[in-house]
Amino acid sequence: MRKQRYDPDDPREWLNRAHSSLEHARKAAPVIYFEDLCFSAQQAAEKAVKAVFIHLREPFPYTHNLGNLLALLSRKGIEIPPAVARADELSPFAFGARYPGLGLETAEEEYHGLLEIADSVVGWAEHIVLGKGED
Fold first, then answer.
1. Comparing C-alpha atoms, which of 67, 48, 68 is closest to residue 125?
2. In CATH, what number is assigned to the domain containing residue 73?
3. C-alpha span between 4 and 16 (Å, rounded)
4. Residue 88's domain spans which residues?
5. pLDDT at 57 over 70
6. How many domains does the chain have?
7. CA 82, CA 113: separation in Å to the nearest integer?
8. Neighbours of 23 (CB within 10 A)
9. Which CA distances in Å does 126 have to 23, 70, 119?
């Protein structure tokens, strides 16, 4: 069953998109490069973080740098748990995973670690926006 769609300025729609990207990131198959899946994991984390900005009614910069986005939230008094702070490890995949030869060839073990980070970020954002647990 598909999720309900919301207006683009509703943080729940951004969380829906984050979940969609996270699900895409979980679709490992022999013909899919792990760095391509990490791109989707990065997108999930980015959309989740931006959902928090929208929830707070704070503008966010148009950047894919998760470390910068989280630093801005921290300066606004939002607690960034250690697992979420690791989201910056996903930032290089916003661009570097799109084309061959950019040095982001990713091993399976690294992929699983980055997927875990993205999952933590989405759960954290959901907790802030919807008041749900981070499970």
1. 48
2. 1.20.120.330
3. 8
4. 11-130
5. yes
6. 1
7. 14
8. 11
9. 15, 15, 11
